[in-house]
Amino acid sequence: MDHFTYKNGELYAEDVTISDIAAEIGTPFYVYSTATIERHLRVFDEALSGMPHLVCYAMKANSNLAVLRIAVKAGAGLDVVSEGELHRAIAAGCPGDKIVFSGVGKTHEEMQLGIEANIRQFNIESEPEMARLNEVATSMGRTARITIRVNPDVDAKTHAKISTGKAADKFGIPISRAREVYALAASMEGLEVVGIDVHIGSQLTDLEPYESAFKKVAELTYQLRADGHDIRRLDLGGGLGIPYQQSNEAPPLPFDYGQVIQRTVGDLGCEIEIEPGRLIAGNAGLLIANTIYRKNGEGRDFLIINAAMNDLIRPAMYEAWHDIIPVKEPAHDAPIAPVDIVGPVCESGDTFAKQREMAIVNEGEMVAFRSAGAYGAVMSSEYNSRPLIPEVLVNGSRFDVVRPRPTYDDMLKRERIPDWLK
Ligand SMILES: *Cc1c(COP(=O)(O)O)cnc(C)c1O
User: Fold this and answer.
1) Which of 79, 162, 197, 235 has most ligand 1 atoms within 8 Å of its beta carbon, as the pocket-test mutant?
2) How far is 173 from 181, CA to CA, in rounded Å?
3) 212 near 218, Cβ under 8 Å?
4) For the chain, what is the domain count?
5) Structural domain harbouring 256
6) What is the distance between the alpha carbons of residues 218 and 270, in angstroms, rounded to a whole number?
7) Is 278 close to ligand 1, i.e. is its CB under 6 Å away?
8) Residue 367 is assigned to a structural domain of this protein
9) Does 346 qualify as catalytic in the annotation?
């Protein structure tokens, strides 16, 4: 459920009309709903009630400081994957003991900063990384808490680019070698083993892969405890999918996901951590664009809009579907016609939808992309020298620009022509 609905023929974000925001800041822009983000955080909290747990929002999905602040104020932790994200987490006021650090390529500097911030844990993905963290921690006279990410070799049945739990993926260590690697970790003075980590992929629309993976984690917990390790935390990753196509998709509910967790690892006496990203932010955001032209091609109509693949790359990169709706509510009997919705970038890949059946939208009229709150703004670029678009946060009847639109001057000022070229 989200807070973007038509009222009196107009699309609203909570109690603000999209057209009011557009009148003030122009298009295109991203808009996020505070109530929706808060609701999603609460739903996960409730799904894990009865188990000691911490929901660590995977901030790579949407790392705007205001969005992070909502999560922090709701008591959530944050899952970071880079030094930049760690700086953002700290700037948003997240206490170190609620920050987990994931990712396959953590550098010396990133480890040092994480230890200085006294973060909750590093999720270790390989033996060389483990050795490096041990070195860094020892040289600082500290110990770093770790989990080791195991690769359970299950098929998450999701898009290849976002599947991470198969043996051929680059993530984690094979679960078959886990005992050996945990023994090595236990022998390192700078490390304190606190648990196990697993994350099998993103946009999962089926609970079965979770069930298989978590069962393997439970089995491993028994083995590692028998080997003498104090396994007290299980980080089960993120990845629960959202309905991008509301008419025909119904991914599992967080409640049922919570039941799977309860059933598979709930009686191990471990603190449960989860790292949802997409489900927190995805349906809490819209991308709003205006129509530059409606072009009638040969047997095909095109809607050329002022947002492009640089603003929202998911359709080009993952062949992703986004529901696209007019900002002005169409009449019930408005004619429906197929249209290709495209951006102005000089690539055929800059296509958001082909032959999409929708009410006719004309030049100068706005459209809204649903489910654009996750992996939207964070993956945008300035390709074609199109400045990053603004982000707006709505809360009830107020809205605030939480990242302003840069000027062309701002964009040019970042670059230099060397003296010898002047
Ligand atoms: C990307 C990622 C997540 C979040 O995945 P979502 O599909 O957005 O929930 C969580 N944990 C790790 C380690 C990730 O890489």
Assistant:
1) 79
2) 8
3) no
4) 2
5) 34-281
6) 10
7) yes
8) yes
9) yes
